[in-house]
Amino acid sequence: MNSKTKLYSELKPRAVELRRQGKMYSEICNELGHIPKGTLSNWLKSIELTNRQHERIQKIMAKNGLAGRQIGAQRNHQNRLKRLARIKQTAEDEYKHCLKDPLFLAGLLLYLAEGSKKTERFEFMNSDPKLMKCMVLWTMKNGKQNLESLRFRLYIHELYAHEKCEDFWIKELKVEPEQFLKTVYKPTGRIYKKNPLYKGCLRLEVAGSELYWKTMAWRDCFYAALL
Length: 227
Hints:
Blueprint: H1 3-20, H2 25-32, H3 37-44, H4 51-98, H5 102-114, E1 122-126, H6 129-141, E2 151-157, H7 165-173, E3 184-186, E4 201-206, H8 210-226
Helix pairs in contact: 4-8, 5-6
């Protein structure tokens, strides 16, 4: 009999006794030292716990689970704060250099006027094709985005549904049809088009939140220098 087998033969009776007292596997290991879960399960599989013992174990597991979730949530929160701090510092370091490019400030002001500030995602909507082209270029140049990674969603009245206005935007922006998300058709009581040239409002979306937070940091730099 090797030393490990001898040790386990000495531990098994005590483990069985503790289990009959209603102890959890983790409690048994805390008292006897680490024993592989498979070994414990084999030793203790024939022992039936009382209802009261089961209830006790369930309460402990629920309490430990809540504590674990709270610790996990706190860790995630701290990691998020660190990530945002890194993004902010990078944006601040880049700001003065970016100002040398006229497109940077133009795009930043466009976003502050028309961009989303609620979703923590970079989203810009407009009906002007030239402004949309500028913002696409801005996200590629200053946001370091690939054109293929950008996504678009068209918002337009039902009255225009048959015109396939998505094709207009695809041609204007030189993007692929696969980059368009499902179009949102808005109900209208009109029976004729008020503006024949209208092709809907297009929303540009950038995945993730990094570009949004960099843009907000650039906004703060702009305000700090101006006000």
